[in-house]
Design goal:
Blueprint: E1 2-13, E2 16-22, E3 31-32, E4 35-37, H1 44-56, E5 60-72, E6 76-87, E7 96-102, H2 116-126
Parallel strand pairs: 1-6
Antiparallel strand pairs: 1-2, 1-4, 2-3, 2-7, 5-6
Length: 127
């Protein structure tokens, strides 16, 4: 079974969180927290900064570690490290179909990728 170790950004602006809608692949159309795979030789934080630049053409500041989660999908096992971040530049969706800024009471308004629901639950308790 393939194992993926990825990082995700919980990007906060005012009292809202950025949700992005996948524009490709197995989970196309579902919503996620942006991020991606850690490359060989990269730290988690280096990977997250690179991934956000690639996906959103944005610079971020990593404010704090939020949570680690694990999820078993049919074809792979996911280990995801999530960090609360803030934007240091404008963003532009380069790989996603859509993006929304969601308040705590709006987090359930989109269809999240399964593993990301654990992040949503974390946010409901910690926002």
């Amino acid at each position: 079974m393939k194992k993926l170790h990825v990082v995700a950004a919980i990007i906060k602006k005012d009292d809202k969180i950025l949700a992005t809608q996948r524009g490709y692949g197995e989970f196309k159309g579902l919503w996620e927290f942006p991020g991606g795979k850690i490359e060989k030789g990269e730290s988690k934080k280096e990977a997250l900064i690179r991934e956000i630049k690639e996906e959103l053409n944005a610079d971020i500041k990593i404010d704090k570690f939020a949570l680690d989660l694990e999820w078993q999908y049919p074809n792979f096992y996911l280990y995801m490290s999530c960090y609360e971040c803030s934007l240091e530049s404008d963003l532009k969706l380069l790989e996603h179909m859509n993006g929304k800024w969601l308040g705590k009471d709006e987090l359930d308004s989109v269809q999240w990728i399964e593993a990301d629901i654990k992040v949503v639950n974390y946010l409901k308790e910690n926002l």
